[in-house]
Specification:
Length: about 450
């Protein structure tokens, strides 16, 4: 039996034993049947534990073998490829024989005068099709293992917005990707899912057809780059420091620009942001509301404007300044009130602050207090982000040769926009809703 089958059988046994426990005066046959079920459950649990132990051992062996292969890759001289030809074994190593990013940088500096004389650097160039152009362009791509580490760092940055979005990979060689989306602007009968409608059927009556309506969302990744110069002296004396510095700086800046585009992007040569988008629901300010303020009614109406299907994954994104205004909001209870905003580690006992039970995440990209975009209630699974590959990193020692500087360039490609092109009219009621809700400027 598979683990899934074992789990299903254990559920059946648990249900049967629960039913047996509800019998007031069970017979001897029922007792005997219950004992057999308990024995079977014990055997199944033992079998499942053995399977899980075997899986853990296999995972450990696989990781250990991977590490051994990587360690040996740079020491072996040759290895056969799939069709029997002999090629350098270092080609199997994602680090191309370099121990660290700093090791790669140091090797590059030591051989900057003639990269073609260094077999390890040429292995990197050959793997990317750059062999013939090394001297002319003066560039050597960073080995893929180190390039990937930069991209991993982008995703794990505290200011990264990509993990909240619906990410769609764009395969290399494709200019763009087209995503089919349901053209739904109303939840009224005949409009749900762009035209799907169900009917209650009388006997001997014909069926009435309906069908969904789709629209196409085309995402064309735009290039986002970071271009830096590093002194050759620093590369020579502190390659490890340079490694940490470049990866940190690149990851921070790329994550920042991506996050700002997802929130505020114009869509011209960059992703389209959620603030001001046609599919974003904007809640008006209260009559007579003071400038640069936030009141309880704003929060309640933003919450009411969230599409009910997207509520489970919705969070609040705020400018850090908004926390001061949130701390002043209370919900009236009798002659007193209770806080509407619960700071982390306080009443909420949560890593994030809570507002109406939802996480509050301060980000730099939200507008200043009182401006549209200062507080956003959103479920960004309704935002499509098209990503092509990882960060493309490259060094060049020739561009600033006369200044004793080495250029370091990183390019990342993505596009994005909200899936909806208008707020949704509800089935009942008059307040249109959206997975993305903002509050209008209070001036």
């Amino acid at each position: 039996m598979t683990k899934a089958e074992i789990n299903e059988r254990l559920k059946e046994i648990a249900t049967a034993l629960e039913e047996f426990g509800a019998v007031e005066e069970p017979t001897e046959d029922q007792f005997a049947a219950a004992e057999l079920l308990e024995k079977e459950a014990d055997q199944l649990r033992d079998e499942k534990s053995a399977m899980e132990a075997a899986e853990r051992k296999a995972t450990i062996r696989e990781k250990a073998q991977s590490l051994r292969d990587a360690a040996k890759a740079s020491s072996r001289q040759t290895s056969p490829d799939p069709i029997g030809r002999i090629r350098p074994a270092v080609a199997d190593d994602p680090k191309k024989g370099f121990k660290t990013f700093g090791h790669f940088a140091q090797r590059l500096m030591d051989n900057h005068a003639n990269v073609r004389q260094d077999e390890m650097l040429m292995q990197v160039a050959a793997g990317t099709g750059m062999t013939q152009a090394v001297n002319e362009a003066g560039g050597v791509l960073v080995p893929p293992a180190f390039s990937k580490s930069i991209w991993d760092a982008v995703l794990t940055r505290s200011n990264s917005m990509l993990p909240y979005c619906f990410s769609v990979p764009v395969d290399p060689g494709n200019e763009s990707i087209t995503i089919p989306a349901i053209a739904e602007s109303s939840r009224a009968n005949g409009s749900r899912m762009g035209g799907v409608q169900g009917y209650w059927k009388d006997e001997l009556t014909a069926l009435t057809e309906s069908k969904p309506t789709f629209r196409q969302i085309k995402l064309t990744p735009h290039e986002l780059y970071v271009f830096m110069y590093v002194s050759d002296k620093l590369l020579r004396n502190s390659p490890g420091t340079v490694s940490a510095l470049l990866e940190k700086a690149a990851a921070e800046e790329i994550a920042f620009k991506i996050g700002d585009a997802i929130i505020n992007g114009s869509g011209a040569g960059m992703p389209r942001g959620i603030v001001g988008h046609a599919g974003t629901k904007s809640v008006p300010k209260e009559t007579g509301q003071a400038a640069a303020s936030l009141v309880l009614e704003n929060i309640l109406k933003m919450e009411n404007a969230m599409h009910v299907n997207y509520e489970p994954g919705a969070v609040w994104f705020i400018n850090p300044e908004v926390r001061v205004a949130l701390n002043a909001i209370t919900f009236p209870v009798g002659t007193g009130g209770i806080p509407g905003y619960l700071p982390p580690g306080g009443l909420s006992d949560s890593p994030y602050s809570l507002l109406r039970g939802k996480p509050v995440i301060p980000i730099e990209y939200c507008s200043a207090l009182g401006t549209v975009g200062d507080i956003i209630y959103a479920n960004l699974s309704a935002y499509g982000a098209a990503v092509r590959g990882m960060v493309d990193s490259q060094y060049s020692m020739h561009l600033k040769f006369d200044y004793a500087q080495t250029a370091f360039r990183m390019i990342f490609e993505m596009d994005g926009q909200p899936f909806l092109n208008s707020p949704i009219t509800p089935f009942k009621g008059s307040t249109t809703t959206s997975p993305i809700v903002t509050l209008a400027t209070r001036a």
